[in-house]
Structure formats: structure tokens, C-alpha cells
Amino acid sequence: MTSLVDGAKRLLSRGSDLGARIEALERACGAARGRLDDRVVDDAEAAAGRVSTRLGLTAEHTVVALAGATGSGKSSTFNALAGVELASVGVRRPTTAWATACVWGQDGAPELLEWLGIAPRHQIMRDSLLDLGKEDRALQGVVLLDLPDHDSTEVSHHLEVDRLIELTDLMVWVLDPQKYADNAVHGRYLAPLATHRDVMLVVLNHLDEVPMDRRQAMLDDIRRLVDADGLVGVPVLATSAVTGEGMDALRDEIARRVQAKKVTRSRMEADLRSAASRLQEASGSTTHPELSKERIAALEDAFADAAGVPTVVDAVESSTRMRGRRATGWPITSWLSRLRPDPLKRLHLDLGKDGSQFIGRGRTSLPAPTQVERARVDAEVRAVADEVSAPLARPWAESVRRASVARLPDLGDRLDAALTATDLNVARMPIWAGLVRALQWLLLLVAAAGLVWSAVLLADPWFGVDRPTNTPDVAGFPVPVLLLIGGFVLGVLLALLCRFLVTATARSRARTADHRLRSAIGGVAEELVVAPVRAELTAYDTVREGLARVLA
């Protein structure tokens, strides 16, 4: 693993941005996992893995593969390029069962061959043949592969060809004059690999079997077919492995590309681009709108109605009014209000520190949402998903919709918990209410004193009570009577006056409770719907931006 990382660093140090593109593709795959077709994501991840591994292997060797159908002369071409008879040549199908590798230069080749999966018995080190006097420096650094026949009836041969084509730096397609237009090569390989045209050569072999006057027409026809496959600009060469005609041109073309040191990088870039293009085709590349404040507000309103916030707000106002009148009313009659149930306690709200343990934590007695309220919640959730997913490709639109409803089964419990956890600000009365209460009790004591005083004055001497002779008065009214009437009247008037203050306080606290409850409900809407939807949009943006980085 260390050698792979070191190799990657060596390439990156020369200014390559492949590392950044690999990371971008891997991020895109991670974000697309579970949202797009697993096969497409798997292919993209595999491509990123292959390129990452190849990036860490030797940069001194270029893998060149000869691919073709049965009888196309791949093995003969392989032998001609190697300069010795290495691959067996036959006429019966299939001739080549396993890939054979001929390597020019051994530095770093063993790791590369191991990655390619070439068995040691099918590896030939070209340097070991130097004693034969056949040194070929032009192809130094080449790992030449002779692949099995792609049209073999053996499934294992197809799989081996497909596997090695994915790992090859430069692909050389050897065509036979008799079946160069076969769909087995054009439809299965050439057209799908149009994104890799910069690392591809097409060779018409067996040129010696084509009459001289038909050669150019045949080459022109191959050129037309190759262009139709999307491989415009791919060189089309003519060779004869038997006579050697055109072999020098093929060798020179391979040597030129290998010596330019661009083939391996071009192949890796093509792999990344191809994988990113397929992933982008499945994912789409359009932008999406952000969730509007109006849409979120409508969702929160629907949740608030379903949670019973209007009912709680009315209960807060009623409870505050009841408690305020109880605190500021005339003490003789205010105790009667205690006989009426508190609206909040009836809803199992504002029960005090230990009250909830009697009914279960976080449970209220609010009525269940009506069908209309539930339908409104469903409609608003759909509207949230539709607003942002309308421009997206179908997989992402479905992913956003799934995310928007995935946590709705928890809605009832979360709304109930939000209500019970909200401080409704009704436990304490204002300071002025306490002062009024003290004043009311003072006035009651004054009235009681006047009553007792008056009773003493009116007591019959038969009861053995001495009647005071000089009763104080004010403007002709006895003070005891004034105390009695004044204490009573002032207490009632103060209670009536405080009704207006209590009503204003109740409305103010109802507004505060409404704001706090809707804020808590907004947190539930954010947690259950908005955040999951935004997470999907973030994943989509990660995919879109990552693929744009790869395809840049």
C-alpha cells in the first residue's frame, strides 16, 4: 500500500490533477449511493478504484493490448511486434485462451503484471531475449498483451477480454478483412468506448489477402464505420503480420505514444470521464431552487394546526385571565374561581415540575388532528418536496419525496413533546398583580375592621357591651361605616379595573405562547421534513459538483 501511495505522490508532484478528480468522483459516488442505480454507482466507484490503483503503479510502463476476433491475426501481430515467436498461431477457435504479456524493461513491471492478473507462465521479459541479438529499444517500457478472442464461444474468454480492456492504457483493435464490419466488435466494444478514442488504434490486418485495387476502398469503409462509432480521429492502419507490411508504421505509432508519456494519463482521464458521464446521465446536472421561506412557513402552520397550537393559545389566554382575576379579584369571591378547572391543566400542560409523572412524560390531552388537518399536513409536505425536486431527474425527485415523508410516523409524538417542553410563561403572575392582591387583602381587612367596629356600635347593651359615646366621623359619616363601605367598594372597583389589565396581560401572554409554540413546532418541521429534504439536496449538489470537477 505504501508503494501505491508513493507512486501516486510522484505523479501528482508532476502537476497531475488526477488525484483531485478521483477524490471528486469518490465523493460523488458516496453521495449517490442509495439514491441512484447501484449498478451505475458501482461502475463509477470501480473506475475510481482502478485509476487510483493504476496511479500508484509504475509510470515507466504503458500497457498496450491487442484485441480482435478469431482469425484476425492478433497473435501474429503480437509476434511481429515482439520480434520473436511468443504466441501460438492457429486456425481453430479459440486459439488464445489466456492473455500473454511481453514486457520491455523490468523496473516496476512485476507489480503491474500482478495488478493485470497475468499469470507468471504467460509473462515474457523481452530483456531476457537480448542474447538472441534482437534488442528493440523503440518499445522500451511497453507491456504488450495478446488478449483472447473477443468473439470466442467461451464465456471465460469474454470476461477476460472485458477485464483487461478496462486495465489497458492503449487499445489496438485488430480487424480481419472478412469481418471488419462485424457488430461483435463495433457494437460491443468500439462504440461504447468512444470516450477512449485518444487511447485507441484500429488496425486492418491480413493486408496481403486484400487485392491492391480494393485496399483503399476497404480502408475508407473502415474509416466510415469507425467514425460512426464515435471514434473520429482514431488512426486506422493497414498491416500484414505475414509479410511485415505496415508493421513498422504500427510499431512507430505505438512507440511514439509510449514515449510521449501521455497514454497512461489519457486512459485514466478517459476512464474517469466515462464513469462520470454515465453517473451524470443518471443523476442529471440541472440546478435546483432553495426552499422558500413562504413554503416552510406554510408547512409550519400546517404542523401547528395539527398539533393544536390554536387550542393551547386559547387555553393560555383563558388560564392567564382566570389566574389574574383570582389574584386581583375581591378575596371574598375570588376563591370561587378555584372551583373552575384550569384550561391548561385540563390539557395536561403547565402541571409543574412533577405533574407530568402522573400522566407520562411529554403527553398532552389535546384532541387528535382532524382529517382536514392531516390532509393539509400531507399536502404541505408534498409541496415542500415538489418545490425543490421539480427540476431534478426522477431518481433524485423520488429520493427527496422519500426523505420528506420518512419521519412523518414520528410526527404526533414529536409535536406532543414540543408542546409539553415549551415554557408557556403562565406560572408567574406580574408583579403588579401581587401588589394588587396585597392591596385587596388590605381593603378587605379595612372593611372587616369597619364591620366589627360597626357591630360593636350597634351591639345591644343587653349583651353587656358598653357602647362608645364619641364615635369619630368624616363629613357626618361614622368612620366605621366609611371603613366598611369604602373597603368593600374600593375592593370591587379595584377588581373591575384590574380586569382590563388582566385581559391585556392574557392576550400578551397568548401572543408570546403562540410565538414560542410555533417556534418549537418549526423545530419539529425542520427536523422531520426540512432537514431531510435539504440533506438530499446537499447530496445532489455533492454529486453534481463532483462530476463537474471530473468532467472539467
Provide tags for this entry:
58% helix; 9 strands; rod-shaped; two-stranded antiparallel ribbon; Rossmann fold; 552 residues; alpha/beta; 3 domains; seven-stranded mixed β-sheet
Strand-pairing-aware structural class:
alpha/beta
Our count of helices gives 19
Termini, distance in Å?
29 Å
Order of helices and strands: HHHEHEHEEHEHEHEHHHHHHHHHHEEH
Low-confidence runs of at least 5 consecutive residues: 1-15, 90-94, 351-362
**What is the residue-mean pLDDT, rounded to a whole number?**
83
**Looking across the biggest beta sheet, what order are the strands in?**
3-2-4-1-5-6-7
Number of strands: 9
Q: What value does the Rg take, in angstroms?
A: 45 Å
Residue share in helices? 55-70%
Number of domains: 3
Per DSSP, what share of the residues sits in E-state strands of 2 or more residues? 5-15%
Shape: rod-shaped
Largest sheet, in brief, is: 7 strands, mixed
